[in-house]
Amino acid sequence: MQLLLDHVIQYAINHEASDIHFIPNQSQVDVKLRVKDTLKYFDTLNLDTYQKILTLLKFKAGLDVSSRHKAQSGRYIYEFENLFYLRISTLPLNLGTESCVIRITPQLFQTDKIQTSNDIRNIMEKKQGLILFSGPTGAGKSTLMYQMVVYAKEKLNLNIITIEDPVEQLVNGVTQISVNEKADITYGSSLKAILRCDPDVILIGEIRDGLIAKDVIQASLSGHLVLSTIHANDCQGVLLRLIEMGITQQDLTQALNLIVNQRLITTNTDERRLVYETMTKDDIGYFLNHDFALPKTFKSLNDKLYELQKEGEIDEHTLRKYQK
Question: Where are the annotated coiled coils located (predicted)?
């Protein structure tokens, strides 16, 4: 089984797949690979072989091998030319078996994945404030944040501490803390400890609720540059979500330096392209002081996608897929 599993994983790595999907039906299991933003068929397994592979994956990821009736998630380190984190996620199905997805992430961060422009990098020179990255899963939020962290470390010589759940990629020269609820290592408790360790930049993996949001805002107002992610469909949605979480408009005006809402798209030449809209401090102030209306000069993600379609960079299908 190990040889068959190695074949699947190594094929996926060689073809730059981000995920391996095992999708059971009544008679067999389809294996598909997420390459860029497309799910591609790879192979078919019989149910008995799949069950043995699933048991092996659960064992390696520290999951409950005997349980088929609850969702589980774990990870382990896999070595193939480089080191990778494999996150194993299972879901119970009404067929009496489980589906499984393997997320493949390089253990060491690779800085050349996404090219960013100076308008985002320059904001890292601020001494305090909050930069938020938003967009759906797979939009490259964490990758872009890591690039900003590497830039701050290498070009600005800043001290950076991160809190993540979990740490998915290691960045040399950066202090990274992994959330562990059982050990009482939470976002809140870690943030309080970090503030005593003289950081210049703090990265918080994700703003999930009002408690984390308030801690992040407070840290950004106390002389630190803070980076984090939040799930929202657009920049104005980020502000509305934070207000819903109990953050005052005054705190948002004072704390926020920049909001980035992004998508990672595939062009007609099969290249990956980061497309994003940005809401600056002036845009944020205008939005909050004009009944949640955007300034006329604001260039939305849809505007940029239309431009790419007109220039022949993307087709109509891609345009429809990523329009808000």
Answer: none
SS3 321: helix
Who's near 215: CB < 8 A, 6+ residues apart?
187, 188, 191
First to last CA, the chain: 44
The string over 246-280, giving b where at least 16 C-beta atoms fall within 10 Å of a residue's C-beta and e elsewhere, is ebeeebbeebbbbbbbbbbbbeeeeeebbbbbbbb
The larger pLDDT score, comparing residue 259 to residue 193, is at 259
Token readout for 312 is: 């022949």
Tokens 């020269």, residue located: 173
Burial bucket for residue 124 (CB in 10 Å: 0-12, 13-18, 19+): buried
pLDDT tens for 83-113 read: 999 999 999 998 788 999 999 999 888 765 5
At 214 the three-state DSSP class reads helix
Q: Are 309 and 319 in contact (CB under 8 A)?
A: yes
pLDDT for 68 beyond 90: no
Residue given tokens 């740490």 in the structure block = 167
Q: How far apart are CA 189 and CA 130, in angstroms?
A: 19
Cβ contact 120:225 at 8 Å? no
Q: Check residue 109 and give its pLDDT.
A: 81
pLDDT bucket at 191, cuts 50 / 70 / 90: confident
Q: Taking residues 309-313, report their average pLDDT.
A: 93
- Contact between 292 and 236 under an 8 Å Cβ cutoff? The reply is yes
Farthest-apart Cα atoms in the chain, separation:
62
Helix (H) or strand (E) holding 275: strand 272-280
119-152 per-position pLDDT tens digit: 778 888 888 999 999 998 888 888 889 989 999 9
pLDDT at 40 over 60: yes
Q: Tell me, what DSSP letter sits at residue 61? A: T
CA distance 160 to 186: 18
Paired tokens of 194: 């970090």
